[in-house]
Predict the structure.
Amino acid sequence: MDDMNSNSHKEELVIDKQYKLQERSKAIEIIKRGMDLAREEIHKGKVATYIPELGKVDPHQLGIVINPIRGEKISMGDYDVRFTMQSVCKVIMLIVALELCGRKEVFSKVGMEPSGEAFDSLVELDVSNSKPYNPLINSGGLALCGLLLPELSFQDILRFTRNICSDPEIVLDEVVYQSEMKTCSRNRSIAFLLQSKGILKKDVEDTLRFYTKMCSMSATADALSNLGVILANDGVCGETGKRFMSSRTARIAKTLMLTCGMYNGSGTFAIKVGIPTKSGVGGGLLSVSDKRAGIGVFGPALDTQGNSIAGCKLLREISNDLRLNLFYDPEWNRETEDENDVLKTIRAAHAI
Ligand code: DON
């Protein structure tokens, strides 16, 4: 009998032999343990205050949804609490821009390199012939908005977001939107710089409103996991068979999430967690374990780079044990690993 149908594999969230996730009951244990460890980190973080309304959010919340391509979701903690997407929506902007305008046009406006700078940096824009490093930082998102306007309205994006997230309750959080519009001088400066360089051809205020509305769409960890699983499945909804984007678009989005999704923390995150992820200052994390699962996390206390402090810790804790890491290694054991021991073993093996 085929392995996939045998009883011994019934409990596993099986994709195929290569991309086998952990058994469900064991997965639940691993996530619970990860949640406990992640909660201990919350006090080290702070909710974003540069958007005053976000400063009112309870920092102690934490929730996660693991949404495997095959098998049942696992949801824990504050997985259905609404928060604003903030920069997570840049993945949606990118998907829509690639589908609407094509790769060539998109990458004529933005680069595909990690910035090594803060998400709201404008340093690269002060150099002649430069464009935003990548589409997942504020300058890149604003440049994409210039491409999307006026072809699409905010309502079009909202409709697409509700569909791809399988969440008809996603709305514009008017209070957060107004709050950010009052304090977005840096984004306004970025937009003017983009305009001065000829990257942004549309009206600065229209572009800012469009961008900020997208950032203020309210989602849940569950909604993000639904978007994530479509990306994991190369752009197709596994349940309905509906294609939301080309597999090339999905691949570009996932690659940029891995290299640029966590801003100047992207390299460290890739090494420690190994799951393409996009963060937002609302506390959301959208993660994609390719061919395996979509993951949504919510934890509003942020680290100094603007990424969810407990969310990152949680993903780090579960990544290898749940076999979500892009570079999953069954031999890897972080707890017992001591770099000196490894080096000693290697040196001994090679007589050095
Ligand atoms: O443009 C901003 O500053 C926010 N609307 C979004 C920034 C953000 O989420 C950065 N993420 N970690």
